[in-house]
Each structure stands twice: as C-alpha cells, then as structure tokens.
C-alpha cells in the first residue's frame, strides 16, 4: 500500500486517516529545540469538507488515499444522481448530490468539471472557474435605480441566483465566476 | 524550471537590514566586552542528542556542527573568558516555516553568571530588536499546570495521554510516543500556544537537561531555560554542567537510545570531556536563533523572509 513519510507532506497530498480520505491543507514542522519533532497538519475531509488538525511524529509514515483528480464532462442529472463522463474512456460516473454539493448550482450540461475520484467513485466536484449561463428571471431594472447598490438578483438557468447590474434583462447570457459566485460580464458570442 | 528561483527569497531591503542587525548584535557584545570567537564547523566528534540529527561530510566523515557549544566550552576551559560566536549550524531534516536545516546561531557564555542574570541579558538583547516588553518567567511545571495539564514531573504516560486527548483543543496524540515525547507534544501543542507574548520557560524536567546542571534545590529539574516570543522558540540556555562524569553518562545513555532507535551514533566528544576534566569554570551559556529573531523583528511569518537563500534555493 502506498504511503507517505511526514517529510513528503505538502498541501494537496491525499491521506487516509481513520479510514477516511483527507487532503493536506497546511503542513507545519514543529520541533522543540531539543525534543521530539512533529508535523502539525490541517487536513480537509474529502467527503465532508470538514477541516481538522492532526499531528504526526516526524518520520512517521501515513497511508496514501487512493484519490484521483480528473477532468470530466457533466452529462445530466437524472433527479437523483449527477452523471459525469471521462472524456478519454467515455466511462460514466454517477455522483451523489453530497459529492456535488454547491457545485450543482453551476453545472450546465457539456461543461468540463474537475472531479475527484476516491476508489473510482466521485467524491467531490469542482465546477469550471467560469460558466456562461442564461438569465431565466430578473426584475426589469429601472433607470437610475440605485436602491440596491446598482445591482439586482437574477436567477440563472441552473437555479443559481447572482447579483447582476441593473441593465441585465431576462434571456441574456452571462459569464459568472463560480469561485466567488459573482457576475463577470455579459457573455460574448 | 531549474534556475527560476535564483533570486533571494528575502527582499533586498531586508537583507541590507539584516547586515545592520548583525552589526547591532556585535555592538551589543562589544559594549559588554565579550570576545568574538570562531570554532570549526566540521568536527570529528558529533552530538549525541537523541532528537537532533547531524549532517555529515562524506569525504572525511566529520560532522557539521549542530551548535558551537562543545568547542566554545573547550575555549572556556582553556581560560578564554566571556565569549560569543555568530556561526552557521546544521540540523538534518529540520525544515519548515521556522526551521531551515542550515541556520545562523548566536551563542554566548558568561563566567560566574546565574541563569537569572543571563536571562536578563537575553531579554536586553531581544528588546533591542522586538522592543522593550516585559518578559514573563515561568517554570516548566507551572506552564503545564496553568494550561490545565497534569504535573509533568509526576504524571505517567497514561495520565499524560488522557490529559492530551481530553484537552479542549484535543487532537489525537501520535501513537508510540515515549513519556518525554508526550511531554514534548503537550508542550508544543497545548502549552506554547497559550504562553504570554514574551516568556522564559525555566526549570525543565531533568530528563530534558541536555547540558544543563540539575537544580541544586530540586534535582528533578534542570537549570535550563528557553525564551519564547509570540510562540516561537528563540533561545535555549543552561547553567552549564561542569561535571565530566555526569556528562559522559548522559552521552552514553543518548548513544544507547540512538542505537535502539536505529539512528547514526556519533562518537562522544572526548576533547570536550577532557576539557571539562581540566576545569570548566562555573558559567551560564545560551544559544539564540538569529534568523528567527530577525524574522520576528521584521514581522515576517517565516524564516524565508530574512534568509537570502533558504534550503530549497541554496
């Protein structure tokens, strides 16, 4: 079984702890001048997203998590599962809503997402950093209306709601930054 | 791309400032009339500390010093008098935000000083860099008790493990720690984060005496102190052990522990023991990590901000 020594620790490394897959968020080497050395790490549970602190004796080996990050195309949602396809093998992977989480509100069919597989099953899904989505509902903006700071909510085709400038109308296609959830621009054709 | 990291990690202004800081350190000791000395970086004998790994030069088999302590004590035994050194020291594998395997160490010795006097002097030096703030002095035992932990001189492994896992910021304790490993874990994970901004920890357990003499009044503790600034360990000082027989026993028990753990076993430094046998004057000495002090003075959150070329760029 693959394992990592603490001196290989760095952020992004995937570990198995208590039977759960984790990714290292932060690694700090801690050593009292004349005492035992430790690695203090912040790790994020890849299933739950929960971040915890752990320490290891320096030099200790920790089991590697069988985790693979890969690009996949989002196909469709069957009401229960989100289906993704590996572009090279055309293999399809159903992902439960827990794995998709917040990414779900940005997913449009055909978009390429970053999918983390654990033992071959989708564990988490990252939407593309930018998506282009159509506005399905927004109030008509009134000229000179600055009551809401010059922006208004708009509902997009995937159900996501973002703040948009007052001049945006229903039916327009927008570019949105999924990392911040913010409107970027009108999409260029 | 190889070579892309050729520039220094610290900015040029900071490196100019570093030169001024080094001048200030030398001025501090010149004013107090300590003699600046130089001793070899490579030595035939090494250190046997269980938790310190030395780097070794391949052609000669000599060890790169982890501190200039042994050589400086030989100078003291030879009658040199109060002295200091600014030198490179090396510790294998110690790499992180506050660790660089090659680092700059300031070490000085004061004849006839009690640790309290030496702590005053350390505080004065540090105040020149970090500002004059009160420095709290706390016994190791009290630091544990104040953190809601058991008495480190009395508690056994089971009690220490229980205290660790029952602590509010509890984290699973690594398995297979010795009693001293547990103390180190509790100290670094629980005690240090709660220390005052500037704090000397004194009276370490005798098992962590290293080269300090044991306390006259309570042989369960050693006349050793450390200075912590904002949770970063800056300095380690001793009322120096002068008894070569006691030191030989510590070296030998270190070697046994190292053999058991499958670590390299450096030879015992017979020249140091011989120097002590000829008479090491009563003295207190301290080693201070200059890179760490400079990083704190600069408000940096890692050594890379004050070192030109840290390990990865060296």
UniProtKB/TrEMBL annotation, chain A:
Molecular function GO labels: translation elongation factor activity
Localization annotation: Cytoplasm
Superkingdom as given in the UniProt entry: Bacteria
Pathway: Protein biosynthesis; polypeptide chain elongation
PTM annotation: May be beta-lysylated on the epsilon-amino group of Lys-34 by the combined action of EpmA and EpmB, and then hydroxylated on the C5 position of the same residue by EpmC (if this protein is present). Lysylation is critical for the stimulatory effect of EF-P on peptide-bond formation. The lysylation moiety may extend toward the peptidyltransferase center and stabilize the terminal 3-CCA end of the tRNA. Hydroxylation of the C5 position on Lys-34 may allow additional potential stabilizing hydrogen-bond interactions with the P-tRNA.
Residues covered by the Elongation factor P C-terminal domain: 131-186
Domain Translation elongation factor P/YeiP central: 69-123
Listed transmembrane segments: none
PTM-bearing positions, type N6-(3,6-diaminohexanoyl)-5-hydroxylysine: 34
SUPFAM superfamilies named in the record: Nucleic acid-binding proteins, Translation proteins SH3-like domain
InterPro entries: Elong-fact-P_C, NA-bd_OB-fold, Rib_uL2_dom2, Transl_elong_fac_P/YeiP, Transl_elong_KOW-like, Transl_elong_P/YeiP_cen, Transl_elong_P/YeiP_CS, Transl_elongation_fac_P
Xref: CDD domains: S1_EF-P_repeat_1 (cd04470), S1_EF-P_repeat_2 (cd05794)
Keywords, comma-separated and alphabetical: Cytoplasm, Elongation factor, Hydroxylation, Protein biosynthesis
Principal location: cytoplasm
Pfam families, alphabetized: EFP, EFP_N, Elong-fact-P_C
Described purpose of this protein according to its UniProt entry: Involved in peptide bond synthesis. Alleviates ribosome stalling that occurs when 3 or more consecutive Pro residues or the sequence PPG is present in a protein, possibly by augmenting the peptidyl transferase activity of the ribosome. Modification of Lys-34 is required for alleviation.
Similarity-based family: Belongs to the elongation factor P family.
Name of this chain's protein: Elongation factor P
Organism: Spiribacter insolitus
Gene that encodes it: efp
TrEMBL record, chain B:
A Pfam family per the record: tRNA-synt_2
Protein's UniProt name: EF-P lysine aminoacylase EpmA
Occurrences of domain Aminoacyl-transfer RNA synthetases class-II family profile (ranges): 23-310
Classification via PANTHER family: ELONGATION FACTOR P--(R)-BETA-LYSINE LIGASE, LYSYL-TRNA SYNTHETASE
Record InterPro entries: Aa-tRNA-synt_II, aa-tRNA-synth_II, aa-tRNA-synth_II/BPL/LPL, EpmA, Lys-tRNA-synth_II_C
Keywords of the record: ATP-binding, Ligase, Nucleotide-binding
């Amino acid at each position: 079984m693959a394992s990592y020594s603490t001196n290989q620790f760095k952020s992004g490394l995937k570990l198995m702890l208590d039977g759960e897959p984790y990714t290292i968020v932060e690694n700090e080497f801690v050593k009292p001048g004349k005492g035992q050395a430790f690695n203090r790490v912040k790790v994020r549970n890849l299933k739950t997203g929960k971040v915890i602190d752990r320490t290891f004796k320096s030099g200790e080996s920790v089991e590697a998590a069988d985790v693979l990050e890969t690009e996949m195309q989002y196909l469709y949602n069957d009401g229960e599962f989100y289906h993704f396809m590996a572009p090279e093998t055309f293999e399809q992977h159903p992902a439960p809503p827990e794995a998709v989480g917040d990414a779900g509100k940005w997913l449009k069919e055909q978009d390429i997402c970053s999918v983390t597989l654990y033992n071959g099953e989708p564990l988490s899904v990252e939407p593309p950093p930018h998506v282009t989505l159509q506005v399905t509902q927004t109030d008509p903006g009134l000229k000179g209306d600055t009551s809401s700071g010059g922006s208004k909510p708009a509902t997009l085709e995937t159900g996501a709601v973002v703040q948009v400038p007052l001049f945006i109308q229903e039916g327009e296609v927008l570019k949105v930054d999924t990392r911040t959830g913010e409107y970027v621009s009108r999409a260029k054709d | 791309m190889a070579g892309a990291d050729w520039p220094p990690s610290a900015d040029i202004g900071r490196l100019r400032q570093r030169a001024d800081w080094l001048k200030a350190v030398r001025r501090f000791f010149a004013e107090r009339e300590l003699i600046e000395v130089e001793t070899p970086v490579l030595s035939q004998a090494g250190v046997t500390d269980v938790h310190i790994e030395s780097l070794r030069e391949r052609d000669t088999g000599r060890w790169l010093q982890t501190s200039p302590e042994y050589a400086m004590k030989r100078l003291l035994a030879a009658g040199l008098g109060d002295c200091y050194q600014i030198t490179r020291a090396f510790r294998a594998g110690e790499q992180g935000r506050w660790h660089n395997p090659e680092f700059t160490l300031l070490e000085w010795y004061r004849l006839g000083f009690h640790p309290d006097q030496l702590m005053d002097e350390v505080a004065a030096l540090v105040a020149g860099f970090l500002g004059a703030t009160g420095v709290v002095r706390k016994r190791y035992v009290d630091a544990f008790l104040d953190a809601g932990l058991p008495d480190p001189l009395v508690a056994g492994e089971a009690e220490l493990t229980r205290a660790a896992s029952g602590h509010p910021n509890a984290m699973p304790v690594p398995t297979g720690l010795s009693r001293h490993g547990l103390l180190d874990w509790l100290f670094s994970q629980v005690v240090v984060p709660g220390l005052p901004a500037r704090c000397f920890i004194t009276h370490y357990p005798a098992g962590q005496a290293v080269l300090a003499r044991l306390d006259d009044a309570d042989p369960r503790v050693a006349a050793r102190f450390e200075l912590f600034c904002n949770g970063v360990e800056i300095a380690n000082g001793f009322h120096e052990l002068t008894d070569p027989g006691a030191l030989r026993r510590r070296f030998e028990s270190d070697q046994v522990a190292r053999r058991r753990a499958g670590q390299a076993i450096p030879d015992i430094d017979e020249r140091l023991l011989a120097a002590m046998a000829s008479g090491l004057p009563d003295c207190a000495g301290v080693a201070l990590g200059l890179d760490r002090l400079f990083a704190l003075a600069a408000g940096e959150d890692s050594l890379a901000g004050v070192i030109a070329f840290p390990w990865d760029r060296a």
